[in-house]
Design brief:
Elements lengths: L2 E5 L5 E5 L6 H7 L19 E4 L4 H4 L4 H7 L9 E3 L12 E4 L5
Parallel strand pairs: 1-5
Antiparallel strand pairs: 1-2, 3-4, 3-5
Bound molecules: FE2/S2 (inorganic) cluster.
Amino acid sequence: MPKILFMSHAGEEHSIEAKVGDSLMEAAVKNSIAGIDADCGGACACATCHVYIDSSYSALTGTPDDMEQSMLDFADEVQPTSRLSCQIPITEEMEGIVVRLPESQ
Ligand code: FES
């Protein structure tokens, strides 16, 4: 059960314990993290699960594939560290990872 820290744009912190194998989006929804709407249920088709993951964690989270990248092209406030949280499976090694939310969420 790795601990994951979700941080709102305003700096509000929510630390949760996530289940390995869930996606970051599923962990956020199960823990009622505000701003992760996940309208498409994880099908990589809505971008309402948009988050920022510091590049220092990219070895753990990987990088967006073509489908995720093309959906990110339609998201607001995209940054180089943007990801769709439904496309990131949680692993034990993600203990302590910080996930930031865009201002509009
Ligand atoms: S939940 Fe829709 S793209 Fe992630």
